[in-house]
Amino acid sequence: MKSYEEAHTPEELNRPVPYLPKKTSGWQTLFVSVLWFCLSGVSFYLGVQALKAQHSEKNANPIAVDQAKPLQLANPSVKSSLSDLGLWDSLGKWWNSTELFPTEGSKETGVSSGNDSKPALPQNDDEVSFRASTWFSDYEAMKKTVHLYNEIHPFIYGFKGRTTNNGDLYSLWGASQKHARVAELRSLNPRVKIIPTIFRWENKNEKISENIGMNGRNDIRDRHIQNILYEVDTYGFDGIDIDYEGMSCEKKEKFEEFIVILSKEIHKRGKILSVAVHPKTSAKKSGLKACKGLNEKINMDFAENWRGPMTHDYAFLAKHADRIKVMAYELHPRKYRNPGPGPQAPNVWIRNIIEYAKERVPAKKLYMAIPTYGYDWALNCNAKIKSVYWSDALRRQQIGVTRQPTNIDKVLAESKNSNSWTNLSRFSWVHEGKTYEDPSIWYHSEGCDRVAFFMNRKAFEEKMTLLRSYDLGGFSFWQLLSDNDPGISTYLELLVTNKLPPVPKAQTKPKNPDVKQTAPEDNQDQEEAKNNQDLVKK
């Protein structure tokens, strides 16, 4: 319009004209709506794929998104239509994934990123049929692997006093350390149950007496129980593990009274009572044994006729404790007398222990504890016996011959100078007809022929397969250390995430009462107690 011309609006356009929508049918409206929804979905999907491709080309860092709830559609018919097209599953998987943009470190590429991620945790306690547990004194090793366990036993408490007790405990962790470490372990595995151990091995220099009410000192026993409860309450433990070993037979009834009282107090708090017991196997012939100071004779239906096992009545303790943990190790302790060199926990022995224990302990309360260590003996000289852990075994393998499985009969027959191996050959009858899953190293050092038995993943896995076949409550081992075969942790990762294949149920086999643990010597008691304390202090 030019500037000198007046604007002119026709009269009929000065009045507002109402909007008259065009009438459409219902099926057209539905068709357009569905078409719009599908095109929007396809556009959204293509856009995301383009962003993923661009992100992959730039090699940018992955963008983590919070875990979302599964996508829900109000109209089930639409969901059904998408499922028929195969789009619903794809959209649901994408929506519920934790990574929007897969990178080289994601599962989609199948390559580890190297970034720290939360490890898989064990199932909730009420969902677990076979619990993983361990004793430990190596805190750094525990931090790295706590996600692999349902229960852990910090090996930190002992008795104050030596030949007499006053009810008091000592702890290898200070007060602030206990608070901090419990919090840290729970942050690493919120489901783990922390049940610390109180340990005492009785010998002539250290007794378990007044703390369980011996010598008429129920007042000291009660003080001991109150000290235990104080620790559980103050530091928020999930229970307590009682590991009172090597007690002489007259302490059986007082120990049982102590367990009954402690059990009531622990259970009032909704906590767990665990008791570690000596291994037992069935006797060829049962009998009753009188012990001075006891009101009743001991039923000797087990083959291990020495003081420690006599005080641990499996059936009685199982009525009051939540966990009975059988210490199935030290079959061949660190000594040169009977039974001499050999593995610490061969399956032929573990099977006998399980079959004895299952007749007296409910399966879900019963745990088998197996070793992660071994010993090294001289075969033809009187040299020092040594403990063997994973790094020790790796060094010895460089200079010797490793056998797994180990058939000692065969080794003796094939070795040219085995007639000089008196430390082993005089006990050859112990090994007749037995082949051990445990590995051994045969080597020469410092003028002596030697043999070292140790633990690796293969032997550990075979023992665990045996335990799993019996439907036990779980397992433990002595003990978790940084110097264990790393393959053991790899196996446990599969166990706690239910990635192991099922095992056949165990079939009852003839018992072998001759495979039994022998009584330790007094000097062995002292040395073993000292070694345990040294391990705890590490």
TrEMBL record:
PROSITE patterns assigned to the protein according to its UniProt record, in alphabetical order: GH18_1 (PS01095), GH18_2 (PS51910)
Biased composition range(s): Basic and acidic residues: 527-538
Domain GH18: 129-498
Protein name as catalogued: Hydrolase
InterPro entries referenced in this protein's UniProt entry, alphabetically: Chitinase_II/V-like_cat, Chitinase_insertion_sf, GH, Glyco_hydro18_cat, Glyco_hydro_18_chit_AS
Family statement drawn from the similarity comment of this UniProt entry: Belongs to the glycosyl hydrolase 18 family.
Xref: SMART domains: Glyco_18
Stretches for region Disordered: 104-125, 502-538
Any one GO MF annotation of this record: chitin binding
Entry keyword annotation includes Transmembrane: yes
Transmembrane segments: 27-48
Keywords from the UniProt entry: Glycosidase, Hydrolase, Membrane, Transmembrane, Transmembrane helix
Annotated GO biological process: carbohydrate metabolic process
Coiled coil: none
